[in-house]
Specification:
Blueprint (H helix, E strand, L loop, with lengths): L2 H15 L6 H4 L10 H13 L15 H11 L23 H9 L18 H12 L3 H8 L11 H12 L9 E8 L2 E6 L5 H4 L1 H7 E3 L10 E2 L6 E5 L8 E6 L2 E7 L5 E8 L4 E5 L6 E3 L8 H4 L11 E2 L2 E2 L1 E3 L6 E6 L5 E5 L11 E5 L11 E5 L3 E5 L1 E3 L8 E8 L2 E6 L12 E6 L4 E6 L8 E6 L9 E7 L9 E5 L1
Parallel strand pairs: 8-18, 10-13
Antiparallel strand pairs: 1-2, 2-5, 3-6, 4-5, 6-7, 8-9, 9-16, 11-12, 14-15, 14-17, 15-16, 17-19, 20-21, 21-24, 22-23, 22-25, 23-24, 25-26
Helix pairs in contact: 3-8, 4-5, 4-8, 6-7, 6-8
């Protein structure tokens, strides 16, 4: 039986017997295998009552209206008292209605909608609308909010006051704080920590530059990229580090205060094989089917763009009965590539290539000017990974080919290839623009801007395109061979 049908049946029963004759758990019947208990609902209602979000004696089993939700959301997230958008008007709400200011504020912020000027204050709220509103108000990914609501969620069912209270109380605990402090830290693998705070970090405190100042480790360990909030979690982060020494005790200081100790983890990440991608780039593959998961699929910041591939891991990093190894950010990571009979070469991670094509194939590139020699066998080794099949024989791979260049603005251009590279092979590449009078500009690929065959390149060193000028655009290095394109600025 669908949850909607359950609710209708319960309300009919309540009408006949009176709500006092029914235990609250029955009034809150749901299709979920572990429905919310009366105690959980009452705890949420009590917490929100303290904050004047709702009254403690509210009929929690009643359906929540849009007017009620507007007030609850406004008070939960402190949205009241802001500037009112005078352009927002309603055909079904009067300025002296008790909910008017809440409706205006939430519609102004695009948290709630008023189609054709109708706010529909007495209309009921579906579970789908409830989660959408909460996600927008919290500025959090929808997958996390849906995860918090999954014990009562049914897209076409109407939400009760109690369910709204439960979800809002959970979301309230996910509100960022600049005073957040660490409550637990543990090493997940050789380059990854799981760090729990007493509240989520603000965007400012998550930023890499600030996080590097705040996270200070003993024994020479360093933060290698920003901490990332796990999807579905209110306050647990994936934190990438330099390679830990197994058995070493590390002390973590956060914002100058001791935040705990942890033992260096000896677990290396299991990768499957390596393969050549271009004449200077290769990739190291891992498989989700083998229990290895890139962090991009499980962090709140990326969940919206990962579609069906995104998922929520529990506190044990498990989902659907499987526990996963996690690959953290590869920023600043490197591997060693050794040609048969030759000297080792350090290859560095190519930014934004961990899983951009839907596969877990992390790309590394040789130093500028060096290329793979066709016919030579290369072996990849790493201090952070175990690679099951670490060798490949290099082959001749045709370079990418530029077919067109256009001005996107006075400081950026678009480069189009003859064929879709299928992945971020623009990453780290540059082109040179030369005018007829010999003036040269350098433009570098803007990460994650590729759409099919076309990517955006930003002009460097404060350079600008000149009007009524034609430039010849050529690749820096041989990543696009001898191809070129003409670009005319009108």
């Amino acid at each position: 039986m669908r949850k909607f049908s359950n609710k209708i049946a319960i309300m009919m029963l309540a009408t006949v017997l009176g709500t006092a004759s029914l235990p609250y758990a029955v009034l809150n019947v749901q299709a979920a295998s572990t429905p919310l208990s009366a105690q959980e609902i009452q705890k949420a209602v009590s917490e929100l009552a303290k904050l004047q979000v709702m009254q403690s004696n509210s009929n929690a089993h009643n359906q929540v209206t849009r007017a009620e939700l507007a007030k609850m959301v406004s008070h939960t997230f402190g949205l009241q008292g802001g500037k009112t958008d005078k352009s927002v008007t309603f055909t079904d709400v009067k300025t002296n209605d008790w909910f008017y200011k809440y409706a205006v504020d939430l519609v102004s912020l695009d948290i709630m909608q008023a189609k054709d000027g109708k706010f529909d204050p007495r209309g009921t709220v579906t579970d789908a609308e409830l989660t959408q509103v909460v996600a927008k108000a919290l500025k959090r990914d929808a997958k996390s909010v849906n995860y918090w609501a999954e014990r009562f969620f049914s897209a076409d069912s109407t939400a009760t006051r109690g369910e709204a209270a439960y979800l809002l109380n959970t979301a309230r605990q996910a509100m960022p704080s600049d005073k957040a402090s660490i409550t637990n830290v543990q090493a997940l693998n050789e380059i990854t920590l799981i760090v729990t705070f007493d509240a989520p970090l603000t965007a400012e405190n998550e930023a890499f530059a600030k996080a590097k100042e705040d996270f200070v480790f003993s024994e020479g360990l360093t933060l290698t990229n920003m901490p990332r909030l796990k999807t579905g979690s209110t306050n647990t982060y994936i934190v990438p580090t330099s390679v830990q020494k197994p058995g070493t005790t590390y002390e973590l200081t956060y914002k100058g205060k001791k935040a705990g100790t942890f033992q260096g983890n000896a677990t290396k990440i299991d990768m499957t094989e390596v393969r050549q991608v271009t004449n200077d780039t290769f990739e190291v593959e891992s498989l989700r089917a083998n229990g290895v998961l890139d962090y991009g699929y499980i962090i709140s910041a990326y969940s919206g763009g990962r579609g069906a591939n995104a998922l929520v891991l529990d506190q044990n990093n498990s989902a659907d009965g499987k526990t996963y190894q996690i690959i953290p950010s590869m920023q600043a990571r490197q591997v060693t590539i050794t040609p048969e009979g030759g000297q080792p070469i350090v290859a560095k991670y190519v930014p934004f290539t961990q899983s951009t094509d839907g596969k877990q194939e992390i790309k590394f590139r040789l130093p500028e000017g060096q290329v793979l020699t066709p016919g030579v066998t290369y072996t990849i080794t790493s201090d952070w990974a175990n690679i099951a099949n670490p060798t490949f024989v290099a082959k001749e791979i045709a370079p990418l080919e530029i077919s067109e260049a256009k001005a996107a603005s006075e400081t950026s251009i678009t480069i189009t290839l003859t064929e879709d590279p299928g992945d971020e092979l623009f990453s780290g590449r540059s082109v040179e623009l030369t005018s007829a009078d010999g003036e040269k500009l350098l433009a570098t690929y803007k990460y994650s801007s590729r759409k099919g065959t076309t990517g955006v390149f930003d002009i460097q060193q404060d350079g600008k395109l000149k009007a009524d000028t034609t430039y010849t655009v050529t690749p820096v290095g041989d990543w696009a061979g001898k191809s070129s394109a003409e670009l005319t600025v009108e």
